[in-house]
Amino acid sequence: MEWLTTHLAGFFEVIQHGGNALMNGMTDGLTAIPMYLFIAGVFIIAVVTSPKRWGFPIFTLIGLAIIANQGLWNDLMSTLTLVVMSALISLIIGVPLGILMSKSDRTQAIVQPILDFMQTMPGFVYLIPAVAFFGIGVVPGVFASIIFALPPVVRMTNLGIRQVPTSLVEAADSFGSTTAQKLFKLELPNAKNTILAGANQTIMLALSMVVTASMIGAPGLGRGVLSAVQHADVGAGFVNGIALVILAIIIDRFAQKLNTKPGQNLPDAKKRRWIVIISLVVMVIGGIVTSFSNTSGGHKKVSLGYVQWDSEVASTTVLAQAMREHGYDVTMTPLDNAVLWQSVANGQVDGSLSAWLPNTHGNLLKKYKKDITVVGTNLSGVKTGLVVPDYMAVNSIEELSSQANKTITGIEPGAGIMTSAANTLKAYPNLNGWDLQVSSSGAMVSALEKAYKNKEDIVLTGWSPHWMFSKYKLKYLSDPKKAMGDNEAIKTIARKDLKNDDPETYKVLANFKWDTKDMESVMLDVQSGMDVNKAADKWIKANQKTVDSWFEK
């Protein structure tokens, strides 16, 4: 892996930049089509391709309207781009490979175990080479999706061609057909339905990778599902999940309409074909018109990465909203902590407000210090440690014995605080036999809420500022050995060349500072049900002088 990333870095970079340009262009094109026109066009196509059946067209209309009503339209278009590109590339690779397998038993013997490996390997594993080769974003998401979704179309193409009746093949041979003529005029037409069934499965598998791909920065509906899981937000998870189900059903039904029996044609097929073409042309024209009407002066583009912790969501959203008000085009990308540091180091992310130093993320700073600049401190006096409800009769880590079933409830495995907690288990002999439970920040708070309500023992990995200290009576356990670290600060980090490439943006990042009360006020608004962008806007309006100071030149 290291050899490939070192010696083929230029090759991977070309694919990354080319793929980003292509897929961003596709997403921009889909987004440019007016929402009402897109829904109407898809509805008309559904009506035309479903004669005398109104169930699917009505479902399509209502389903897309629900997605639009929930403010998920742009995410839907990003997801559609990822699925279409993944499925298309899988088909381009898979169908020829399946043909080759059907013509050669040796090729089948070689490829079959590889396909078995690809199908049985957990999808999360494919994120590792994807990030190593292409960094973060939609390109590694597509790469991982292709590996996961490719096997069905290869297998079904091979199967379909091998199942063509031998008598038909012999008849073609007797008439002097060439290999190409047999393939394109006999075998592929007879295997069409089997191949299309494999293609349909490939599309569905690509769609199933949406949430997994969001872990490495792929945009779309999967990002909303992942965020909901990490914050235990049932409502947001349900809405984004329903949107994915609606998209899956629509794609599946349209794909099935291509799988027809020989000689099966819709009445007035030519007329219906023209209606579909006209609908697509109108949608494209609408997108072109919208693109020209929305063309304006270029905004300075900035990418901010963050970890899906409540504190980092609050700070990153506030700065992003403030920068947008000052004319910046800001992209916010949620990432796993280790991936975030790697992305800043390799220049795919301009900066982040999520570095807890010197202890929690100290190892990551040592690893990437040559490629990262610590811009400054954006919040002082933060703290990490083991936290318990105040009704528990322990005040020090040394006093823990068998409380909470000898379990420390933690958050995401990549978080620095989890490393500190693991070191704490080793540092204190009385914690021998204790377990560190991996979950998410949202799941940890849900466990706290349940235990607090029932007055049960619970030990958490905690940090402040955090809204849970305002909602519940909690206390830090003293840490005589400083295994969880001492008081820290949240630092702003940036890619190494940002100061030279964009000194104005660098200065904004350096100027960004606020205090614990500011952060907690935004987090409490979000926890109370307010949209995070609205909570950020509320704080900005109430603290305009502070915000203006961030942009002083």
Automatic annotation (TrEMBL):
<keyword id="KW-1133">Transmembrane helix</keyword>
<comment type="similarity">
    <text>In the N-terminal section; belongs to the binding-protein-dependent transport system permease family.</text>
</comment>
<dbReference type="GO" id="GO:0015226">
    <property type="term" value="F:carnitine transmembrane transporter activity"/>
</dbReference>
<dbReference type="GO" id="GO:0043190">
    <property type="term" value="C:ATP-binding cassette (ABC) transporter complex"/>
</dbReference>
<feature type="domain" description="ABC transmembrane type-1">
    <location>
        <begin position="76"/>
        <end position="255"/>
    </location>
</feature>
<dbReference type="GO" id="GO:0005275">
    <property type="term" value="F:amine transmembrane transporter activity"/>
</dbReference>
<feature type="transmembrane region" description="Helical">
    <location>
        <begin position="29"/>
        <end position="48"/>
    </location>
</feature>
<keyword id="KW-0812">Transmembrane</keyword>
<dbReference type="InterPro" id="IPR035906">
    <property type="entry name" value="MetI-like_sf"/>
</dbReference>
<dbReference type="GO" id="GO:0015871">
    <property type="term" value="P:choline transport"/>
</dbReference>
<protein>
    <submittedName>
        <fullName>OpuABC protein</fullName>
    </submittedName>
</protein>
<feature type="transmembrane region" description="Helical">
    <location>
        <begin position="55"/>
        <end position="73"/>
    </location>
</feature>
<dbReference type="InterPro" id="IPR000515">
    <property type="entry name" value="MetI-like"/>
</dbReference>
<keyword id="KW-0472">Membrane</keyword>
<dbReference type="InterPro" id="IPR007210">
    <property type="entry name" value="ABC_Gly_betaine_transp_sub-bd"/>
</dbReference>
<dbReference type="GO" id="GO:0031460">
    <property type="term" value="P:glycine betaine transport"/>
</dbReference>
<feature type="transmembrane region" description="Helical">
    <location>
        <begin position="203"/>
        <end position="222"/>
    </location>
</feature>
<feature type="transmembrane region" description="Helical">
    <location>
        <begin position="274"/>
        <end position="292"/>
    </location>
</feature>
<dbReference type="Pfam" id="PF04069">
    <property type="entry name" value="OpuAC"/>
</dbReference>
<dbReference type="Pfam" id="PF00528">
    <property type="entry name" value="BPD_transp_1"/>
</dbReference>
<comment type="similarity">
    <text>In the C-terminal section; belongs to the OsmX family.</text>
</comment>
<feature type="transmembrane region" description="Helical">
    <location>
        <begin position="123"/>
        <end position="150"/>
    </location>
</feature>
<dbReference type="GO" id="GO:0015833">
    <property type="term" value="P:peptide transport"/>
</dbReference>
<dbReference type="GO" id="GO:0015031">
    <property type="term" value="P:protein transport"/>
</dbReference>
<keyword id="KW-0813">Transport</keyword>
<keyword id="KW-1003">Cell membrane</keyword>
<feature type="transmembrane region" description="Helical">
    <location>
        <begin position="79"/>
        <end position="102"/>
    </location>
</feature>
<feature type="transmembrane region" description="Helical">
    <location>
        <begin position="234"/>
        <end position="254"/>
    </location>
</feature>
